[in-house]
């Protein structure tokens, strides 16, 4: 087996998975999970630049992840950046600074690459998978929707609607005014219109990944502390999402933090919940299965497949 670290650098959060890759039994065995709210994409939607302070937060986070990887004897670190790096005009400068400071090379994924890796990661290791299913990933800068089966991804789209991006663009405060809230709803509907139709074929079985979905599941299930084992495969119903949205849109950031939402997510969870609500409403989805897996697992699966290829060449 080979132990490796996989880092997903999103607009709001950086996520680490250290895992053992077992090419003989085709398994990804998680060793350690970590997440840090970096807010790399702060003001990127407006300025198209990642500022120095955000870059320093990222570098410190990656140094911490590198130390954890060393402690757990990971042989390799694979890092990928998504929406914030895609949008930033100075992404090459950021990537160069990160390499010099940490030695970690970041690959910037296209929206299509992100959707494909997230799709395979969400269902990695799943038994008794549905014949056809859809995966949604609501990030800080973008939302990826993908559909297919265990053998093949055949439909995907990446949309520039994320919890950080739209909060910065459309909400002046939390709670938002009624005018701001409905303007956000109209903007989300506008972005979804014309893009959701291909996914009606996979709406009976939908999986949701990433921080917005896991946070919503934690809130509606009444958990005080985040427990991955209780969140993974949690069935999230449309009525639960609708009720939570009604509550969140009238709460202050301090009140949301009091509900157990981390400080770096409390100001954007209302928008993230609104995006999920509109997705479910427009597509007619009654239930979403929450997965704690996603892009990191897709990266790990790709590494596992490459390892299997190397072993077959040796044989």
UniProtKB/TrEMBL annotation:
What region holds the Ppx/GppA phosphatase N-terminal domain? Answer: 28-305
Return the InterPro entries for the record. ATPase_NBD (IPR043129), GppA/Ppx_hydrolase (IPR050273), Ppx_GppA_N (IPR003695)
What GO MF annotations does this protein's record show? pyrophosphatase activity
Q: What Gene3D superfamilies does this protein's entry cite?
A: 3.30.420.40, Exopolyphosphatase. Domain 2
Under PANTHER family, the record lists: EXOPOLYPHOSPHATASE, RETROGRADE REGULATION PROTEIN 2
- Protein name (database record): Phosphatase
């Amino acid at each position: 087996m080979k132990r490796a670290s996989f880092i997903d650098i999103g607009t709001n959060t950086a996520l680490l998975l250290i895992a053992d890759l077992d090419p003989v039994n085709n398994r990804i065995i998680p060793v350690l999970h970590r997440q840090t709210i970096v807010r790399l994409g702060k003001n990127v939607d407006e300025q198209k630049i990642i500022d120095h302070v955000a870059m320093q937060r990222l570098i410190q986070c990656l140094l911490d992840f590198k130390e954890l990887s060393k402690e757990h004897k990971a042989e390799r670190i694979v890092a990928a950046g998504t929406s914030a790096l895609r949008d930033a005009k100075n992404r090459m400068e950021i990537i160069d600074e990160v390499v010099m400071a940490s030695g970690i090379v970041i690959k910037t994924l296209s929206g299509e690459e992100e959707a494909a890796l997230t799709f395979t990661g969400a269902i990695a290791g799943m038994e008794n998978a549905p014949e056809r299913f859809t995966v949604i990933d609501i990030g800080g800068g973008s939302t990826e929707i993908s559909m297919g089966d265990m053998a093949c991804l055949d439909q995907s789209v990446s949309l520039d609607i994320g919890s950080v991006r739209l909060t910065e663009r459309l909400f002046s405060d939390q709670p938002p005014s009624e005018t701001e809230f409905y303007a956000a709803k109209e903007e989300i509907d506008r972005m979804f219109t014309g893009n959701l139709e291909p996914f009606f074929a996979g709406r009976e079985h939908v999986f949701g990944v990433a921080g917005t979905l896991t946070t919503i599941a934690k809130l509606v299930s009444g958990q005080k502390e985040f427990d991955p084992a209780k969140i993974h495969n949690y069935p999230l119903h449309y009525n639960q999402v609708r009720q939570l949205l009604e509550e969140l849109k009238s709460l202050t950031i301090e009140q949301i933090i009091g509900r157990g939402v981390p400080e770096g997510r409390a100001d954007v969870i209302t928008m993230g919940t609104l995006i999920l609500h509109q997705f479910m409403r427009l597509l007619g989805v009654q239930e979403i299965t929450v997965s704690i897996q996603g892009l990191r697992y897709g990266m790990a699966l790709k590494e596992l497949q490459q390892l299997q290829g190397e072993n077959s060449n040796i044989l």
